[in-house]
Design brief:
Blueprint: H1 4-19, H2 27-42, H3 45-52, H4 58-72, H5 76-87, H6 94-108, E1 111-118, H7 124-138, E2 141-148, E3 155-160, E4 163-168, H8 169-182
Helix pairs in contact: 1-6, 2-6, 4-5
């Protein structure tokens, strides 16, 4: 387990490179390529064990990472970053670093992250409408992270920063219960 401080340092360092005016990769491209690489590498448990194992020589890990990155068309700057993570034995933190990188880049580009939980998958139109409404309420652009939560009866909940907007059936029932309890004689 890698500490949040270390994860944030790696993410911030890569964000600085990606945001630089002369960068050869856009922020969205960097996150997408790293997520794709992670998904491919984590799909094979044996490969994850090899990349995370201190018993496997660095040179061997580098060959494997280069081969995968080359086959996927990963940009050189991102390949270099992956090699640094591997060399520093931080491979097990890759997913956390990517998540942190995405947060740092969103913040830099003026986006607020909004986690939206719904009882079922939202349609594109619903997602767009929700995004517009949360942007209006939050006062800045939001980037939605959609999560299907089967424990919800219906409706949605949204967390933007530390504020929670509860439009779920459960939330409405709880509000109604409190209102009825407050009006008792």
């Amino acid at each position: 387990m890698t500490s949040a401080t270390i994860v944030n340092r790696y993410a911030s360092a890569l964000a600085d490179v990606v945001i630089a005016p002369n960068s050869v990769v856009t922020p969205a491209e960097a996150v997408a390529q790293l997520r794709s690489f992670y998904a491919s590498a984590s799909a094979v448990p044996e490969l994850q064990m090899v990349l995370a194992s201190p018993a496997v020589p660095k040179a061997r890990k580098r060959v494997v990472i280069r081969a995968i990155a080359s086959a996927m068309g990963i940009k050189q700057i991102l390949l270099n970053f992956l090699l640094v993570l591997s060399d520093r034995r931080r491979w097990d933190a890759l997913r956390e670093v990517i998540d942190s990188l995405e947060s740092v880049l969103d913040e830099h580009m003026g986006f607020e992250r909004a986690e939206v939980r719904s009882a079922y998958a939202l349609s594109d139109a619903q997602t767009e409408e929700l995004s517009r409404e949360l942007t209006r309420v939050a006062g800045r652009n939001v980037r939605l992270q959609l999560v299907v939560d089967p424990t919800l009866i219906g409706g949605v909940t949204a967390r933007v920063g530390s504020t929670v907007y509860d439009g779920s059936v459960r939330g409405s029932l709880a509000k109604m219960r409190r209102s009825l309890a407050a009006n008792r004689y």
